[in-house]
Q: What sequence folds into this?
């Protein structure tokens, strides 16, 4: 019998311009999580650098790296040392002039279990990701690891029920989101509260609709806008573990470096899907227009 | 300029074996809502009768009626008298041996603006709907009315992001769910709390993912199981109005007859969709497997 209890760590922290310091902060967080029993550790989006997408600057392409590359090498060693699976988030240089925002699962032997290239790419003031990242072409394909079949998704994907559903239909046992989202402090407080609550709630909705645990690891800290046009982004932390009925299992604070460690019972999904058999009743004969941009 | 503020009423009540009394309770609730300014009134699922699906009993087919039929006639008169659009929920007899669970929008002149036949049909102990209701064949098609384009859906549809998305893609301005869901009081309280919260949260998720207001009207009261096999269903009321950012605008109590009246700003959806342009970035090239039962 497989033990279906899985202890998961979320490593939330602020980043600086110093990439070496960032990776050390990340590694320290992984060590903390592992020391508290984590067998799977989820990192935040683009944990190796500042969130450089606040501006469109060609110089930032220098931050990209290959997969495998230095970060997967380093984190693979940590995964081996600590005997934990690690989900990293990397600015991937795939080829000359071809870059992705990629989540990578590193196995406990340091090997790369698999990758997910961010499929939904945002582009809003302060989040100029369409400039940097080619939309993923690996589809919504989970990655098999020694701790389970992982539905890796990234940030903006969080807002798309389609992404969560496709991972669930492919047998994902968990949905995992490295993210980098924050507030524009010019927004009034009630708007900021609504945004954080919407972010949490839409993910809880994915958990419920698919009877799956959902984990999100978000960066924290303030990062100035290099262009000086805005006040920058106050990343809202709040890294979260959600159970398969949408229940809040654990959540980090918005404004501190924090390692969340949480136990997830992977057997509850199967029990829930018997009580709430959503998958049985999907009207796949009537969903064709989901493949349209708009039904006009 | 159209006034895009819309006042909506939700009429939540208990039902009895007396169909005439049920319709009078409903009509009284509509009058209350209209007197408080409602120009659109949403009724609960199958408001004309007890929730007869607790058992499979051929005699219950006598409860079905045609559309148009006595209930649409009566409620059409009320819609005309009160100058309000009404969304009713009817056990529809479409033909001999062919029945549906149908939502009907009645226009302010008493005419039938359009229907939606419940697409996702549940079947669980106490909710034997597959026996009574043929799955809908009208698709996920909104109904145009004088108060807006209404995305009518029914109860079990609430758990399906696909349904909400298809209505949004067809230009629905509101999602409206007549529902009949409740507790098995044999479940421990913490499970009942999780269920009610999941029901609310998954709907808030639809609101967020589609930047649309969501309204649900649920029945309340205890209805015994005619078979005596269970303790019956304690319908959990909690009829709710949710804003397009997932915010809770108003909610009824779980255990009382109640008319909720709430103002909805229909212009917020458009503003939100500019700030959070989810529709722009959907990966319709990669959603094909949503049309599969499972990706195996």
A:
């Amino acid at each position: 019998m497989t033990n279906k209890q899985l202890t998961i760590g979320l490593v939330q922290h602020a980043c600086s311009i110093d990439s070496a310091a960032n990776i050390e902060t990340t590694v320290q967080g992984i060590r903390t999580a592992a020391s508290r029993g984590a067998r799977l550790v989820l990192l935040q989006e683009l944990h190796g650098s500042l969130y450089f997408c606040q501006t469109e600057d060609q110089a930032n392409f220098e931050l990209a790296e290959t997969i495998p590359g230095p970060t997967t090498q380093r984190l693979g060693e940590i995964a081996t040392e600590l005997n934990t699976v690690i989900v990293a988030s990397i600015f991937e240089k795939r080829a000359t002039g071809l870059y992705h925002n990629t989540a990578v699962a590193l196995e406990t032997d340091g090997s790369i279990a698999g990758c997910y290239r961010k499929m939904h790419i945002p582009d809003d003031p302060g989040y100029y990701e369409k400039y940097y990242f080619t939309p993923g072409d690996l589809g919504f394909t989970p990655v098999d690891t020694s701790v389970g079949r992982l539905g890796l998704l990234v940030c903006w994907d969080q807002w798309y029920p389609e992404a969560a559903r496709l991972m669930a239909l492919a047998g994902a046992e968990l949905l995992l989101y490295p993210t980098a989202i924050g507030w524009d402090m010019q927004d009034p407080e009630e708007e900021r509260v609504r945004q954080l609550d919407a972010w949490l709630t839409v993910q809880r909705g994915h958990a419920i609709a698919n009877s799956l645990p959902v984990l999100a690891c978000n960066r924290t800290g303030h990062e100035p806008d290099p262009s000086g046009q805005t006040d920058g982004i106050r990343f809202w932390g709040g890294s979260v573990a959600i159970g398969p009925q949408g229940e809040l299992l654990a959540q980090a604070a918005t404004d501190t470096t924090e390692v969340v460690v949480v136990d997830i019972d992977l057997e509850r999904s199967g029990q829930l899907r018997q009580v709430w058999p959503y998958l049985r009743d999907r009207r796949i004969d009537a969903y064709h227009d989901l493949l349209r941009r708009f039904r006009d």
